Amino acid sequence: MKLFSFLGDRYHDKRSFFDVLSEALKKHFGSFQVEEGQNLEEILRENPDSIVIARWGLSESGTFWLDEGALQLLTRWLKGGGRLFVWHSGLARYPQSYAELVGGRFIFHPERTSVRYFTEDGFSFKIFDEHYFVELRGNVEVFLWSESIFGRSTAGWKKHLESGKILALTPAHDEEALKNEKFKQLLEKSLNWLLS
After folding, report:
1. Which candidate, 30, 122, 184, 190, has a CA 20 to 30 Å from the CA of 68?
2. pLDDT surpassing 90 at residue 183
3. Residue 29 to residue 178: CA distance in whole angstroms
4. 3-state DSSP assignment of residue 33
């Protein structure tokens, strides 16, 4: 199994996300390879099993690092059976067409606080986190919600795009939250759905 990852930005530590992602993959899939992505067009030529985006949409110059041409290629790859995991800041500061593709977008977060994440089947956990408030776009299956003193929001969804799958998760912001055992259980279960 081969995955390409676009992780980390000025507010999010690449290594923390990489370590937790690798641990979750190892538990469920044994043999896998995660490579750091640079150029999306070149990566898509290799037809990877999955792409993980946990980086906000603005480059250092303040422009979108995923332009419309790259988004069209990503959409074609997804429709042909690609698997895309959009994680935390991977929902922030992207063009509208990206939000439409992945099924939602980050709107804002208040100051970090205790956030409870929960599913319909009673699974829940609390972490000190950026409580992401999101806006959904299109037909998605919500499976995770969040609540704090600031209100309630959607925190995770699944989306099918022809033969492809998209997974979106809003937690978690820093190393301590990412290493929460219940968050790691959620990540493992979510990746199992995406990659099966």
Report:
1. 190
2. yes
3. 20
4. strand
DSSP 64: B
Closest CA to 24 of 193, 194, 192, 196: 192
For residue 148, list its beta bridge partners.
Answer: 151
95's tokens: 């063009």
User: pLDDT tens across 43-97, in order?
Assistant: 998 889 999 999 999 988 888 999 899 999 999 999 999 999 999 999 999 999 9
More confident residue, 170 or 12: 170
The DSSP annotation for 94-163 comes to: --HHHHHHHTEEEEE--S-EEEEEE-TTS-EEEEEE---EEEE-SS-EEEEEEEETTEEEEEEEEEEETT
Put simply, whether the predicted model's pTM sits higher than 0.90 gets the answer: yes
What pLDDT digit, counting tens, does each position of 141-153 carry? 999 999 999 999 9
How far is Cα 157 from Cα 102, in angstroms, rounded to an integer?
A: 10
Distance CA 16, CA 107 (A): 24
Ordered alpha helix ranges (H), 55-180: 68-79, 96-102, 175-178
Question: Which structure tokens are listed for 100?
Answer: 């439409």
Answer yes or no: are the C-beta atoms of 19 and 12 closer than 8 Å. no
Alpha carbons within 13 A on the beta-carbon side of 162: 9
| CB 167 within 8 Å of CB 193 | yes
